[in-house]
Amino acid sequence: MKDTFKHKGLRQQLVNVLINKGIKNDAVLNAIGKIPRHLFMDSSFLDHAYQDKAFPIGADQTISQPYTVAFQSELLQIKPGDKILEIGTGSGYQTAVLCELGAKVYSIERQNELFKKTSKFLPKLGYRAKKLIFGDGYIGLEEEAPFEGVIVTAGAPFVPKPLLSQLKIGGRLVIPVGDDVQVMTMFTRKGQKEFDQEEFGEFRFVPLLEDKN
C-alpha cells in the first residue's frame, strides 16, 4: 500500500485534466488530488490508475471514471456533516471522495464479494463510512433517512421511488438514468411531492441491479 511522489504527481495531472473538462469545485478537486486511486485497483492496472478512465474491479463492476466521480460529487454540493446515501459502494473510491468532502456516508453494495473487500479496505486507508451495507440499493435505507444527498453509481433503467422519498426537502438525488447509455439526472426535492429535475448529458455506467448477489 505505497503512495509515492510519482503517484502524487500523476494525481495532480489528473486534477488538471478534470479542471480542463470543467470541474470547478475545489473541495472535489482536492479530494481527487489526495486519494490514492491506484490502491483501489488491481496491481495490473497501476499504470492506468490516474488516466481519466473507468476500469474493471471484479464482480463485473468497474471503478468509475474520475471525471464521472468528480461530476456527480460536484452536483451534490456537499457540505461537511451532510448525510449522504451512496448506492453502489463498488471499490470504495467514490465513498472515499464523499468522506473526504466531510459527508457522513451510508453506502449500499449488492455484490457480496465487493462488499467484503471494500469493508475491510476503506478503514485501512482511514476512510470510515457511517455504515457500509450489503443489500439492495433500489430500496434505499429508510431507517437512516432523510438524506441531504443520494448518489447512484450505476445506470438505473428507472428512478427508484424510495430514493426520492428518502431525500430531505432541498436534498438532491444524482442518478444516471437509462439502459445502454445513461443521462445524468438530478432531482432536487422542493416539497413533499414536488421535485425539480435537471439533465446533464450522457454517461456510461454498469447497470444497477436489483436484489443482492
UniProtKB/TrEMBL annotation:
It is found in: Cytoplasm. The keyword S-adenosyl-L-methionine applies. InterPro entries: PCMT, SAM-dependent_MTases_sf. Gene3D superfamilies: Vaccinia Virus protein VP39. Signal peptide: none annotated. Keywords: Cytoplasm, Methyltransferase, S-adenosyl-L-methionine, Transferase. The active site is at S64. Its EC number is 2.1.1.77. It comes from the Bacteria. Pfam families: PCMT. Its main location: cytoplasm. It catalyses: [protein]-L-isoaspartate + S-adenosyl-L-methionine = [protein]-L-isoaspartate alpha-methyl ester + S-adenosyl-L-homocysteine. SUPFAM superfamilies: S-adenosyl-L-methionine-dependent methyltransferases. HAMAP family: PIMT. Catalyzes the methyl esterification of L-isoaspartyl residues in peptides and proteins that result from spontaneous decomposition of normal L-aspartyl and L-asparaginyl residues. It plays a role in the repair and/or degradation of damaged proteins. Belongs to the methyltransferase superfamily. L-isoaspartyl/D-aspartyl protein methyltransferase family. This is Protein-L-isoaspartate O-methyltransferase. The gene is pcm.
